[in-house]
């Protein structure tokens, strides 16, 4: 093993790769070579660093210096200054929305300070394509401990003590699921990893698979040992090519080391894993639908019982866990269930990974202890709302989730508190919305998604959601009536109660939660035929309010239809004949002068 | 890759081997060696000092020593220079170095904590991150 004085950890998560991090890496290598530093400075490609908003990202060790938004053109200067002469380059350092001075070190950046990394414990610290680096961070040490010194019952017991609950959405206790899977004496049994992450705006599982694929393989193998199963399947979206590539590499490396296959670590336990790329139907994230899809059938949920632990894949006992759940397993076995349970709330232990997106400064992937408040997530980690806008809501849990208002910012996020608020943990998508978001429109967006993705098996979801969408469309078009709100609520509750699977049971949540917390906004749409956030096009007059107009002319520049007349020192005016109602002027105006 | 079925001992061995090269990503250093790499330092042979230090760390499988570079410290006539800092003690600057002296400093000061006064210039250092 060669020793280098400096390691450059270049983020190669999907976010940074799409911003050009691989070009940065190539330029780094050629420049280091040119400067004769290749033997002293090592370039390492890592999985997602998490701070996607600032990509391409590079972290320099041993100092721990965080460089952001690098381009290949920046590299020659950076290499000469920092890696040759030892002077960190200030202009590529981070400075936050609230902090003017540059923050050189990753550990001092607020985005990272409030996070606790467990599922993402190797984030940015290992080469995702190198099994040795995973091993160096205690990788496969849990498996080795389990196989050499624990019985399957002890493994299950430890997971039960940890209080780990499924990170895929519903939060079923993982230890209990394993125990049930162990109880049925029908062989073969199967372990499935659910990587069919389908919520709009969510990318937790993708990042874990890209950054630390071995942690999932290790978790699955441990689960296999607990159940007496010898085959695992990873169901992962075909839209995640990088995740699939790294998983394939990881499986091959693990097989070569004998960490998958026959006689793992000389213990007599056999386990192997295969990958199944799913075609990308939202419903296939539902466990029974996923299993049908794996069998080559149409992805549709079935009635439970029997539970999958009794009769799952091919009718055999099957334990299905989400990616993040499985990534949490190795440290639980290594450090003990008590260690895991020491963090979190009464009913929800450990941490949760969230994909923080929307109108928030620090978009990215975060991991926080259960019980962290929404305020900490949005303001301390997320850095607040950009462009002087106001916070309005946070959408949590995707199409099964809800929009929570300002008054709930201090809610301590865990499975139970969210449930109580009419929301859902979901897989962990967290979309921040500012005051230019219309709640009726948001509800409509998610309902539209659920209508598209409904598998059609049961009537409440297939037809009920469509009826809800029609009503929402009517309200957004200005034809709503006051009774519509009650009708939506009634229908929503019926759908929740009578739908077949978890997706149908939660599909009305976006509508019900916006009705609960933003009822006024529906009323304004219905009674005043007005959309306060200026989103619903049919309810906008496209007229300039001369009292609010600051006569800056920005709207004229933005208008693609040349419908706006404006001259210096006079308010702008919109010609309704020419206006195509595209909302460009509304987005351009900083003063809400267009009504 | 050839098939090499690991035993539990193999796994531990890989962990220790790789960890000694990746531990610098985790912080927790007890000593820092800073080689001055201004134009003057490089011209006077600072690169050789760097090679010596890295070789020592590699051969002796040493953890917890951070190696960094810095620019010209302003005393170009006494280059090559290096600063050694043991955590919790004030840094010591060495001047007029060569490979042998650097090795001596590494063994005595970095590993054993004894300042090599014969080559030392002063206590204290410019600020680096």
List keywords for this structure.
heterodimer, A: 595 residues, alpha/beta, four-stranded mixed beta sheet, 24 helices, 15 strands, globular, B: 129 residues, alpha+beta, five-stranded mixed beta sheet, 4 helices, elongated
Question: Explain this structure to me?
Answer:
The complex is a heterodimer of chains A (595) and B (129). By secondary structure, chain A is an alpha/beta fold. In chain A, 39% of the residues lie in helices and 13% in strands. Chain A contains 24 helices and 15 strands. Chain A has helices at residues 14-18, 21-34, 75-84, 110-113, 131-136, 141-149, 152-162, 174-183, 204-211, 213-227, 241-256, 287-294, 323-335, 337-341, 374-381, 415-420, 439-453, 459-476, 483-498, 502-506, 509-517, 519-528, 554-558, 584-588, and strands at residues 6-11, 41-46, 58-61, 65-67, 190-195, 231-237, 272-278, 318-322, 351-358, 364-369, 391-396, 402-405, 429-434, 564-565, 573-574. The radius of gyration of chain A is 26 Å and the shape is globular. The N and C termini of chain A lie far apart (67 Å). The mean pLDDT of chain A is 94. By secondary structure, chain B is α+β, with helices and mostly antiparallel strands. Chain B has helices spanning 8-22, 39-44, 46-60, 99-111, and strands spanning 31-36, 65-70, 82-86, 92-94, 120-123. In chain B, helix 3 (46-60) crosses helix 4 (99-111). The A-B interface holds A 1-7, 9, 36, 39-40, 61-65, 83-88, 104-105, 107, 125-126, 132-133, 135-141, 144, 148, 252-253, 256-259, 263, 265-266 and B 1-8, 11, 14-15, 17-22, 24-27, 29, 34, 36-38, 42, 47, 50-51, 53-54, 57-58, 66-72, 128-129.
């Amino acid at each position: 093993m060669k020793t280098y004085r400096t390691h450059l950890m270049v983020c190669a998560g999907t976010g940074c790769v799409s911003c050009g991090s691989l070009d940065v890496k190539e330029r780094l290598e050629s420049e280091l070579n040119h400067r004769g530093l290749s033997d002293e400075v090592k370039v390492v490609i890592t999985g997602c660093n998490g701070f996607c908003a600032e990509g391409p990202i590079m972290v320099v060790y041993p100092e721990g210096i965080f460089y952001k938004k690098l381009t290949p053109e920046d590299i020659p200067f950076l290499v000469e200054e920092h890696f040759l002469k030892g002077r960190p380059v200030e202009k590529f350092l981070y400075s936050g929305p609230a902090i003017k001075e540059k923050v050189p070190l990753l550990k001092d950046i607020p985005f990272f300070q409030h996070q606790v990394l467990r599922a993402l414990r190797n984030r940015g610290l290992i080469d995702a394509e190198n099994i040795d680096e995973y091993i160096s961070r205690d990788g496969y040490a849990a498996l080795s401990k389990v196989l050499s010194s624990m019985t399957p019952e002890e493994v299950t017991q430890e997971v039960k003590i940890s209080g780990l609950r499924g990170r895929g959405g519903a939060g079923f206790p993982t230890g209990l699921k394993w125990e049930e899977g162990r109880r049925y004496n029908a062989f073969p049994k199967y372990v499935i990893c659910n990587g069919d992450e389908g919520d709009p705006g969510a990318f937790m599982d993708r990042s874990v698979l890209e950054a630390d694929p071995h942690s999932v393989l290790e978790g699955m193998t441990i689960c296999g040992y607990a159940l007496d199963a010898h085959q695992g399947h990873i169901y992962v979206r075909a839209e995640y090519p990088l995740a699939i590539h790294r998983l394939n590499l990881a499986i091959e490396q693990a097989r070569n080391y004998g960490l998958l296959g026959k006689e793992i670590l000389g213990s007599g336990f056999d386990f192997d894993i295969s990958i199944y790329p799913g075609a990308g139907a939202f419903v296939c994230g539902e466990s029974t639908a996923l299993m049908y899809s794996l069998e080559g059938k149409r992805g549709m949920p079935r009635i439970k019982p029997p539970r999958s632990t009794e009769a799952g894949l091919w009718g055999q006992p099957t334990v299905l866990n989400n990616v993040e759940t499985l990534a949490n397993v190795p440290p639980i076995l290594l450090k003990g269930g008590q260690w895991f349970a020491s963090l979190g709330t009464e009913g929800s232990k450990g941490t949760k990974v969230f994909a923080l997106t929307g109108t928030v400064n620090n978009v990215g992937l975060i991991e926080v202890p259960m019980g962290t408040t929404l305020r900490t997530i949005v303001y301390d980690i997320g850095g607040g709302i950009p462009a002087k806008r106001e916070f309005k809501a946070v959408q949590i849990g995707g199409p099964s989730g809800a929009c929570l208002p300002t008054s709930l910012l201090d809610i301590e996020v865990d499975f139970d508190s969210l449930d109580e608020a009419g929301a859902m943990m979901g897989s962990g998508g967290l979309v921040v919305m500012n005051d230019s978001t219309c709640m009726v429109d948001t509800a409509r967006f998610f309902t539209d998604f659920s209508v598209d993705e409904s598998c059609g098996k049961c009537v409440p979801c297939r037809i009920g959601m469509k009826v809800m969408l029609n009503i929402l469309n009517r309200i957004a078009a200005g034809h709503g009536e006051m009774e519509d709100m009650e009708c939506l609520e009634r229908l929503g509750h019926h759908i929740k109660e009578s739908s077949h699977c978890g997706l149908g049971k939660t599909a009305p949540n976006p509508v019900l939660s916006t009705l609960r917390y933003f009822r006024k906004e529906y009323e304004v749409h219905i009674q005043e035929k007005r959309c306060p956030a200026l989103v619903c096009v049919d309810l906008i007059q496209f007229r300039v309010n001369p009292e609010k107009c600051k006569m800056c002319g920005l709207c004229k520049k933005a208008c693609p239809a040349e419908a706006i007349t404006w001259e210096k020192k006079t308010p702008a005016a919109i010609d309704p004949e020419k206006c195509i109602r595209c909302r460009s002027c509304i987005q351009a105006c900083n003063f809400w002068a267009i009504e | 890759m050839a098939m090499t079925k690991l035993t539990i001992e193999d796994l531990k061995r890989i962990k220790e081997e790789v960890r000694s090269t990746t531990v610098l990503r985790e912080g927790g250093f007890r000593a820092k060696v800073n080689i001055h790499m201004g134009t003057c330092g490089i011209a006077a042979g600072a690169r050789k000092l760097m090679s010596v230090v890295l070789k020592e760390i590699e051969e002796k499988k040493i953890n917890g020593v951070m190696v960094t570079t810095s620019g010209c410290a302003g005393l170009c006539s006494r280059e090559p220079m290096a600063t050694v800092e043991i955590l919790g003690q004030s840094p010591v600057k060495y001047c007029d170095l060569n490979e042998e002296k650097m090795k001596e400093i590494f063994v005595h000061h970095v590993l054993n904590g004894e300042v090599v006064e014969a080559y030392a210039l002063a206590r204290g250092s410019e600020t680096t991150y």
